[in-house]
Amino acid sequence: MTNRIRLESIDESALDVYARLTEAQLRNRLEPEKGVFIAESPKVIRLALDAGYEPVSFLMEQKHIEGDAKELLVRCPDVPVYTGERELLASLTGYALTRGVLCAMRRKPMAAPEAILNGARLIAVLEGITDATNLGAIVRSAAALNVDAILLSPDCCDPLNRRAVRVSMGTVFQVPWTVLPDPIDASVKRLRTLGFSTAAMALSDESVSLADPALKACEKLAVVLGTEGDGLRPASIAACDYTVRIPMGHGVDSLNVAAAAAVAFWELRRS
Questions:
Q1: N vs C: which end of the chain shows fewer Cβ within 10 Å?
Q2: Where are the alpha helices (DSSP H) in the chain?
Q3: Strand order from edge to edge, sheet including 4-6
Q4: What is the C-alpha separation between 132 and 92, in angstroms, rounded?
Q5: CA distances from residue 111 to 23, 115, 173, 206, 245 in whole angstroms, order as listed
Q6: Mean pLDDT value of segment 114-140
Q7: Count of CB atoms within 10 A of residue 127's CB?
Q8: What angle, 0 to 180 degrees and rounded to 10, lies between the N-to-C axes of helices 257-267 and 132-144?
Q9: What is the dihedral of CA 235, 228, 117, 271, to 10 degrees?
Q10: Alpha-carbon distance 54 to 42, whole Å?
Q11: How far is Cα of residue 130 from the mean position of the Cα atoms in its chain?
């Protein structure tokens, strides 16, 4: 088929998206409508297609054309497919392909917060989460535990970062998310006008237990989680209605932010 391109070298400019562009260049902040991201593995790519993301090209081992990627290629008959042997593709990308298939996909326009909060009852608000693994894990927990939406501060890691997408197992295409235009303390005030109570996950003398009945009684609740190292900024904590801690034993004072998010989402889930 004419859209199948057999690679003999890694120098073709069409392959820049897979190997020679930084995450910032892929994101293309100046012209977001031209931005792309990379999805790995047939399952993740399928979820992205189901969510309406447009494929630009595929990169895969030759054997997957009639194997794991066959269904994807039937869905995308006119999309260029670059193929080659495993060693050549690894030399291009710098890593072994997950299940041998990558797909470059176009980004969608960023939604306004109000657009993804209609009908939401439990949401996550993330401040300064810069580790892609943590962000992907938080998104996966949010999907599994029925969090309705995720809002991110401008300094968070990109949810469509290659590693974040992979760790999320494609759930980043299932849970609505967007980036807030303002710092968290200002955004909390905005959430309050939309009927949300806000719970800052932080260690404090004023904190209440995650099991406090008042939290479950909130009709709509936003769980606010901070950066892996220092946690939430004082201004963000002060702006929230509650400061909340997870009761722990053996002298442990805190959990990794992805673990803390999973615990909070489970305890505060809505029926």
A1: C
A2: 16-19, 23-27, 42-50, 70-75, 86-93, 113-117, 132-144, 162-167, 184-193, 213-217, 234-239, 257-267
A3: 4-6, 81-84, 55-61, 101-106, 36-40
A4: 22
A5: 21, 6, 14, 35, 31
A6: 96
A7: 24
A8: 10
A9: -110
A10: 15
A11: 11
Q: Are 81 and 45 in contact (CB under 8 A)?
A: no
Q: Is the torsion defined by CA of 56, 113, 174, 210 positive or negative? A: positive
Cα–Cα–Cα angle for 233, 184, 149, rounded to 5 degrees: 125
The residue assigned the tokens 């495993």 is: 86
What residues pair up with 31 in beta bridges, in sequence order? none
Burial class (CB in 10 A: 0-12, 13-18, 19+), 19: middle
The mean pLDDT of the chain is 87
The residue with tokens 């939290």 is: 215
* 129-174: pLDDT as tens digits: 999 999 999 999 999 999 999 999 999 999 999 889 999 999 999 9
> If you ran DSSP here, which 8-state letter would residue 212 be given?
-
**Tokens 């303002």 appear where?**
182
* Contact predicate 49/75, CB 8 Å: yes
Stated pTM of the model: 0.89
Tokens encoding 206: 């004023």
Contact 124, 222 (CB under 8 A): yes
